[in-house]
Design goal:
There is one protein chain. The protein has 170 residues and is of the alpha/beta class. Helix content is 29%, strand content 24%. The chain contains three helices and eight strands, in the order H-E-E-E-H-E-H-E-E-E-E. Bound molecules: cobalt (II) ion (CO).
Amino acid sequence: MLSLPNPKILSLRHQELSMKSASTVLLGLALLGTAGLAHAAGNCTVTLKGDDAMKFDLKTATVSAACPTVTIELVHAGKLPVTVMGHNVVISKTSDMAGIASAAVKAGAANQYVPKGDARVIAHSGLVGGGEKTKLTVPGKKLTAGGDYTFFCSFPGHSTMMKGKLVVTP
Ligand code: CO
């Protein structure tokens, strides 16, 4: 035998559900509102995490060329020291990444593994160890919407794993 639920309970549940849906709709509208505002300038700030396993948590980061300043904040969520598991974030054209990574090894620790005065480097952050954070900033106008860009860590050997696509929207 099927036991039918008490209709009173059913109707209460239904009421509860309707209230939940209503607040979901309101929340959705509030989010839409925020997204609407953000859309005017596009996304200007990205938070990226690096860890002790030589990985970034993002494969893609999206920013807008319309941003006065684009910021990529890098959080090293690991524990290893900068000398062993240093992370930074560098942005360049995808075709320039390998060349910059080689030049970074030559630049060495003294230059935080970023080749000095290298025009291929569009922007870079500092180099940090576990528990630290750093960031890079770049004027949005230095990026071209639809361009082929990559963000990566230039610590020796890291760019093969620690890289992702930087998508630039108008
Ligand atoms: Co790294």
